[in-house]
Structures are given as structure tokens and as C-alpha cells.
Amino acid sequence: MIKLIEKIEGEAKLNFNFKDDKIDFVDVEFMSTRNIENILRDKRAFDALVINPRVCGICGHAHLIATVEALESCYNNLQLSNKAKAIRELTLNFELIQNHFKWFYLTMLPFFGHKQQILKATYPTQLMGKAIAALGGQYPHTSYAVVGGVVCEITQMDIIKIESYITQTLKFVEDNLVKVDSKTLLACKDADALLDFSGDLPEILIEIKKRDMLNHAKSYDRFIAFGENSFFKKGKSLKARVSHSISLKDVKESEVPSSFAKNVSYKDKYYEVGPLARAMVNKTTLVVDAHKKYGDSLFSRILARVFEILELLNHSKKLIDKIDLDEPSYIEPEFDISKLTSSGYSAVEAARGTLIHKVELEEGIIKNYEIITPTQWNLSGGTREKPGVSQKAMVGLSDIKTAELVFKSFDVCSVCTTH
Amino acid sequence: MESNSLFNKLSSRLEELSNLPKLDEEVSISKLVEEKGFSRREFMTWAGAMTSMLMLPASFTPLVAKAAELADRLPLVWLHMAECTGCSESLLRTATPSIDSLIFDYISLEYHETLMAAAGWQAEENLEHAIEKYKGRYILMVEGGIPHGQSDYFLTIGAHGKTGEQSAKDASQNAAAIFAIGTCSSFGGVQAAAPNPTNATALSNVTNRPVINVPGCPPSESNIVGTLFHFILYGTLPALDVYNRPKWAYGLRIHDACERRGRFDAGEFVEEFGDEGAKNGFCLYKVGCKGPYTFNNCSKQKFNQGTSWPIQAGHGCMGCSEPDFWDKMGIVHEPLGDRLYHTTFGGLGADATADKIGVGILTVTAIGIAAHAAISLVKKPKE
User: What is the pLDDT of residue B124?
Assistant: First the structure.
């Protein structure tokens, strides 16, 4: 039996194949592309700084940072101030946080019989958008990160503003997501202890338990994260065994005949990316405990994503404390990019997982540009014998509604994927 | 028009609207605003800000407040075409207090692919249902360029295998008003940049109905919400420039109302990012600001609830609300001044008034820019 769900943020199709009333395969097709990689070809290197954030309005900032870092990696010995690094990391954190809120309130809650809470999604989202704008000028689609640093010359007043946005967002978390003070929650090591709290997150976790969904959405239990910064570590986790020596050379993209989105694998195997993957690589105690009890399931995935909000807010406060306003925001590269023939790459952690950019320059002109988005990792359209991560997570389920919940627990983003 | 007669005209428009049935009899905007903890005073403050944004006298504030309360009479259909969803993201950041969020997202929005909870068959049914039920009454907002001609099979969705282009055409047919939200829908946008692999084009190129363009990549939330409010209040289309952009928002160049304009006039320029000029907020023209060629109200409305805008953060304007963005607004971080005669509008450059493009005006402005720019030292040559 084949059933269709033709709308995944507008532009993708799932073909559900049933056998004995259970899903035995789900074919994923993307029917659209904008072909941004083709548009980038033969353009000036810095054009990518304007075009790439427009790959995705939902994680456009991650694309900006990935672009600037890919271009910077084409230089030898390019200097960046710690201030510029910290400011870039802060804006990326804020983008992740606001995405996590929207996913939880706009996408996840309605699956559990709750009304979609637009205002709860927009309030913290607006705060984080303002925090990004205070540094980058606007959100989405800021252009403040340039090769050599950032262009904003922030003052102590800006710092105070950003701290206030963080405090207000933390208050929202404590008043709504988990009704407990954030220090207690950050110190929590037992995933089951969360079920004793009240708030929107515990309610959903309790609901998962009550509905007997603790084993739902299990996939390969293989995680990977390539983005590295002062908070995230690079590495892979195989059934909780973590290794940090991984190389982008082993990442492969492959075409799918029925879809415009390419598959992505690491050493020919599909890996999950995203907040759960990051928490497993970072060995976040609370999430590792959830994984120990409930595996790479819906429970662990939702918990990891919401808990990351709190961790990133907390880490952002520490980052702000370290900013030295006297440092330069921008250090001019030694020579003009138009004289550069080189290649480079970058990997950053976007809201939905690892985002990779690769660039080849010939005298400052882009000869090749490749973008691998997080959704490509999680949504790779594999075969019956070797399904992709989200495909595997849906096998064995008996109804489409639950399959859709499982599918959306990966927070698929079709705009990014169909770049 | 005298303000009295305008007041009367808007009042009768609102009177007409109030006779229309509500989208949902159970919910009223004024009750909802109250339930969400906004006092009448806060609501009126918000209405006052909206009044000023629409360039109406302060005495019109009660009318704008009434228009907000009547927004639940006008259903809204929002379609996604070839785009990045940045415009929807911008909309999600509508002004504080979240009164516009209430009005825009919570009540009026009949169909929005990102915000609505429905998916699959149900979503498509919702769209068809909204178009049929509210024939001639719904407002259509389209985000994204339209894959056109040989590429029109992109975005084919649904049980009927409708192409994106067909969906846009069908929804346009019976809309009370059509707004192209963002540069992609207005002019094709980034995916229409050379070589335009998907043959993306403007919404106005695939429908014969009038389309109001609200460009920007993304447009500010104020311009999106303001456009809607203008229609609710007037019931007619706003005054437009040559590119069908509402004059109230796109009537002036970025340069005209830029907070760094005084620096430009004084010949104080940032020569490179991070220099003393950058630290002191000098003009960004020499590091590639396209403000003199771009029509938008960014400097006045700003983004993210008035928090900031690109120039405030130290980066020049990129001309994202002009036709042919990205192709005609390069080079990034380099002034456009010397290329004026090879840019948009058949070689005339964007450097003219919004509704009157003339070589004379262009020349005067070009000379002006060149003269001002020359006051400062010549840009330091790169190594």
C-alpha cells in the first residue's frame, strides 16, 4: 500500500509503503531545487557571502558563518581576533536557540494534541532575533561576518542589551519549558527526574511515556558532528562510544534518481546529525542518561534539543564575559582575495546538525562550491536494504500520523536541502 | 486629500468590513488581545505606532485600532514558491507587543505552509477550501520566485500534481489583493541570479492580476504588516512606484534617511573594515554600500522590532530590494559609483527617484556622489 504526504514545509513528498499493516519502507522525494551551487560558479568569492545566507532563511546565519570560514580556510595564516570569534559564535548560538523554540512549539506540540502555540514560539524567537540583530544588524540574512572578522564595532551598551535578551529568554525557559530554576536543570543528571517537573517539556515527555512511545523513532544509533567551537566538539558516537578523530574526506554526497536532494554518508554509512548527535559527542550527562535508558528515540531527541537551549544560553553568558572590547573586530587579510587560487572547507553546527561548505577558488573566482546541509544527513533517501536515518526510524510504525511525528522529530528543512 | 475626507473615507471602509462575517465566530481580536494580557492602553500605543508608520496623522489612531480589530474579516493565504523562507521568518518577528502576531498569525492566517499545523492532504484541502470559500475576499501573499516556463514542474505538489506556477496562478485568480512578499516573489530574487538555473521569475510575470511588490531580502516585518494594514484601512491598493512598490515604504532611498548621511556629506568614509572610520560610524559608501541606489525604509523601520539594521552594524546596504538583486548590485565591499551606467534599468542605474527615472537626475546624483566621495582620501589600494 502506498500513501502520500505531499507537504513537508511545502516541497517534499513521502511515499509510505505498508506490509502487514506496518510501514516497511518510506520513499522520500524532493521535487524542487534552486541550484544555488550552479549560481555560485564563476562568481567572485565574496558574492558567496551574500548568496549563501539565502540558501535558507531558517538557518541563514549558519550558512553565513560556514561561507566566511570556508573562504578563510583558503588563506594560509589568516588572523582572527578572539573578539570576532566570540561574536560569531554568539550569533550562531542565538540562531540555534530560536530554531529550537520554533521546532518545539510550532512543530512538535501539535502532534501531542496540544494547540500550536504560536505566541510561545515567537516570544523567545523574537528575543534571540534581537540579540543577533544587536550584533549583526538584522536577522534573518545578516552580512556582518566578513573574511577577517566581523564589521560590528559593539560597545558596552550592546553587551548589556544582549545580556538582557539572554536573561529574558532564560526566564521564559524557567516559566514555560521546565518550571524550575535553570541551575537546577543544568545540574540534572537523571532523565527520568524531568518527568517529575511541570512545564511544556515534561508534559511532552510524560505523554511519550503514557502513549507507549518510548521505543519510537529509533534509527542506527550512529551520530556525527563536524562543527567545532568553544562549546561543540567534533566527533562521532556509535552506541555511546565516542571518537573524535573523524575526517571530512570520508563524507560523500551521492545523487538520488527520484529526488533533487543528494544523499550524504560517512564511510558509506548513514549518520544522524543534530542536537542529539552533538549531546552524544559532547557527552552531555542528562542526554547520555536518556540515551542509556531509551536509546536514540523520540524521547532522547526531543530532550536533547530542548536541553541544548539551556546549555547554549548558559554558554553564551560565559562567552560574553570573555569578550575584550579593545580587541579589533576585523584584521585585514594579507592579500586581496582576487589573487587567491586555493580551496577550503568549513563545518559548523547549525540548528539541525552539521552544515558543510566546500569552495574552490581560481584567482578569487569560485570554480566550484558544494554545500551539504544537515537535513541531507538525516533525510538521505536510502534503499529498502539500506534506508536513511529518518527512513529507518519510521519502519515498523503502523500509522502515518505517528510516522509524521517521527519524521518531524528530525526537524527536516526542505529549503536547505533543495538548495 | 483633506484629512477630514480621508478620515470619512477610511471610516466607511471599516464600516463595510464590520458587516462582513468573521472567520471564526468564537474568537474576537479585542478579546484575544485582552486575554493575552495587553491592556487597552498598550493596544492603543501599538495602533499609534502603526498609524505613524503608515504616514497618517495621529488622530487616525482609533481608526487603525479598529482596523486591527476587524482583521479577522479578511482571510489570508500565504504561498511558498522557490525561496528560503526568510520572509516568513521576518514575519515571525513582528513588533512588540506581539499584537500583530496575534492578528496576523493567530486569526487571519487561513493557509501558511510553515505556520499551520496541517500537512499533507489536509493542507491542500485547506488551501482549496480557503480559495473557494473566500472567493474574491482573501488576501494572497506569495513568498518566493516562480519557477517558470521549462522549469515550471518544480514545486509540483498535491493530489492533482499541480505545479508551483499553476498554484500561484490559481490562487491569484480570485484574490481581493495580491502581495508579492520579498524580492524573490517581486523580482525573481537570488535564485534568478545568473545563470538562473530554474528560470525563476516574478509573480507579476505569471498572472494578469495586479501585484503589489513588497521587496527586500527579507522585507522588514513592518513593511509586511504595514502593507496588510494599508489594505484593511483603505480597501484599495496603495500609491506605487515604477516597480509596483508601495511609496509609503519604498519612496525614499536608503541613502536619503541614513543615519550616516551626515558623514557622507562631510566626506568621512570608512576606507576598510576595522579602521578608525569604522569605529566612529563613518559612511560605508567606499566599502560597498549600495544605499544611494536602493529604495527602502530600512533606516526608519529597522529590523527585529526596531533593534538594528545592516548599516548600523557596520555593513553597507546590498540593494536587496531592487530588481535584479543579486546580479546588478555587485561587487560586494566595492562602491558601485563607477559602474552607474551599466547597472539596472537598461543602463540608467538605480540612481534616480523611485517613479521618475531620468538621465538628468541621474547625472546630478552621480556627480554629487563622486564629488562627496572625492573629498575623502582615495581608497587605499589593496596589496
Answer: 66
- Do B230 and B241 belong to one domain? yes
Q: Nearest CA of chain A to the CA of B156: how many Å?
A: 7
Cell of B54: 503608515
User: Which runs of consecutive H residues, i.e. helices, occur in chain B?
Assistant: 3-18, 29-35, 40-53, 61-69, 86-91, 99-101, 120-133, 164-173, 183-187, 221-234, 247-250, 261-265, 276-279, 298-301, 344-347, 359-375
Share of chain B above pLDDT 70, in %: 75
Angstroms from B210 CA to nearest CA on chain A:
25
Domain boundary among B251, B268, B288: B251
The whole-angstrom separation of Cα A142 and Cα B93 is: 15
B85–A152 CB contact, under 8 Å: no
Whole-model pTM? 0.90
Q: Is A152 annotated as a binding residue?
A: no
Judged against a pLDDT cut of 50, whether residue A6 lies above it is answered with no
**Domains of chain A from N-terminus onward:** 2-410 (1.10.645.10)
> Does the pLDDT of residue A306 top 60, yes or no?
yes
B185 close contact with A: CB closer than 8 A = no
Contacts of A129 in chain B (CB under 8 A): 93, 304, 307
Grid look-up 553597507 returns: B316
Q: pLDDT grade, residue A226 (50/70/90)?
A: very high
Q: What is the pLDDT of residues A316-325, one digit of tens each?
A: 999 999 999 9
What does the pLDDT average to over A332-354? 96
Classify residue B40: in a domain, yes or no: yes
Same domain? B237 vs B294: no
Three-state secondary structure call for residue A369: strand
Q: What pLDDT, in 10s, does the model give residues B207-238? A: 999 999 999 999 988 888 888 888 888 888 88
Other CB atoms closer than 10 Å to residue A292's CB: what's the count? Answer: 11
In a domain, B245, yes or no: yes
Instruction: Report pLDDT digits (tens) over A273-294.
Output: 999 999 999 999 999 999 999 9
CB contact under 8 A, A118 and B105: yes
Q: Which among B94, B195, B383 has the least Cβ separation from residue A38?
A: B195
Check CB contact under 8 Å for A140 and B273: no
Would the pLDDT of B303 be above 70? yes
Report chain A residues whose CB lies below 8 A from the CB of B82: 32, 34
Residue A294: which H helix or E strand, with range?
helix A285-294
**Grid coordinates of A76:** 594560509
* A413 known member of a binding site: yes
Instruction: For A414, name the nearest residue in chain B, comparing CA atoms only.
Output: B84
**Cα separations (Å) of B117 from A109, A200, B112, B237, B328?**
10, 18, 9, 31, 39
